[in-house]
Amino acid sequence: MKNSYAIFFIFLNVFILLFLIILLKNILGREYYFSEILENQYCVTYNYLEATESFRESDGLEPISLATHATSDMLKTLENMPKMWNSPISVAIFVDEKTQKSLDYLQNLHNCDKEFQRKMTIHVAFRKSAFQKRCPPLLRPKNSETSCFEFLSHQKSYRDRIPSFFGLYPFGLMRNIARKGAKSDIHFVMDSDMIVSEGMDQKIKRIANQMLDGKLKNVILVRRFENVVGTEIPRNVKDLEESMRNNITFEFHHKYFFKGHKIPNLTFWRTQSQDNLPVSTWNEPYSNPDWEPQPILHRNSPLGPDYVPSRVKTMCSVIYKLCRAGYNFHVISHVFNVQEGIKLDNTVYGNAIAHHQYTYARDKVQERFTKEMDWKYPGTKEKCGHFVF
Ligand SMILES: *[C@@H]1O[C@H](CO)[C@@H](O)[C@H](O)[C@H]1NC(C)=O
Ligand SMILES: *[C@@H]1O[C@H](CO)[C@@H](O)[C@H](O)[C@H]1NC(C)=O
């Protein structure tokens, strides 16, 4: 008699425990995402919205993810992105109190736009508040109250109601989130205001798979251009050449800090990028510690420092770190991207941010980064030069 009571109670307890676990999982798991804390400053939620397609095809090749980052002012750009990239896209979006509505907008888009849904995976980052010890869980997107018909027919007015982001934006951290959350192992790290040349993801697939196998220490670099505002953006090499001849398209930032972007030997790139030639790459030595070309790299290659302040050499620090880690740089033919607008100077806003962040950079970040590099990669100090924020 006693025994059967005991068994009954054990079963009851197990049953209650199971019930509680399932209840907890339902309440927390379904409604909320857990967010992870980074640098004791930022909260990050991966896969807030997830792409429905993997783009793994019968060729057995690893698809190339476009890894990019944005704020609420870039919603239109994000919307157009699936049209130019036929492979997975991983976006880290930064929100604050005023711009969190962009998440509802993206959810509607993900729900209603099939191309967007197939390709786009969205990760969310926001700044932890003062005195907050932990990151609050992020509410999962609920089924929208807006119908797709309603949303798609008033898309612009929905978008226009979301204010622009204004604040310190952690570029380095955001690029890392986009890379960590990407759904494939090869990543093209790009700023979201760039327009890529036609069919880029397919053109680079084979050669990127050969060169970026996760073991070889290679990085592929993509040439970058800028276009006079309001003119047509060239999307293939032939149009690019004509547009350059007409002084409409130029090498990226050719009038503003060209040292940071210059990839030498454009003439050679042109001859290698003829239609009848296959896509190829060739070695390009590391230029200088202020260099910030756009990389295609494997998941296994090092991430940039998360802690670099806004607008203070965020991309340069990634490229420098790759040099210190012993990576070789290779320029790729045929593909490129273009930004609208010729940069002549920093904006007042950009300068203000750089100034604000500079003190912090000089005092804290410089020491931390130098120490990290010299400890991790003691052998490459001479080869890569001295990095100064
Ligand atoms: C482009 O600019 C160069 C240098 O300023 C000039 O010599 C050339 O005539 C310009 N070409 C056209 C088509 O305007
Ligand atoms: C351009 O690069 C090619 C291949 O690396 C090289 O043969 C050629 O000499 C270079 N030209 C210049 C002007 O640097």
UniProtKB/TrEMBL annotation:
<protein>
    <submittedName>
        <fullName>Uncharacterized protein</fullName>
    </submittedName>
</protein>
<keyword id="KW-0472">Membrane</keyword>
<keyword id="KW-0812">Transmembrane</keyword>
<keyword id="KW-1133">Transmembrane helix</keyword>
<dbReference type="Pfam" id="PF13896">
    <property type="entry name" value="Glyco_transf_49"/>
</dbReference>
<feature type="transmembrane region" description="Helical">
    <location>
        <begin position="6"/>
        <end position="24"/>
    </location>
</feature>
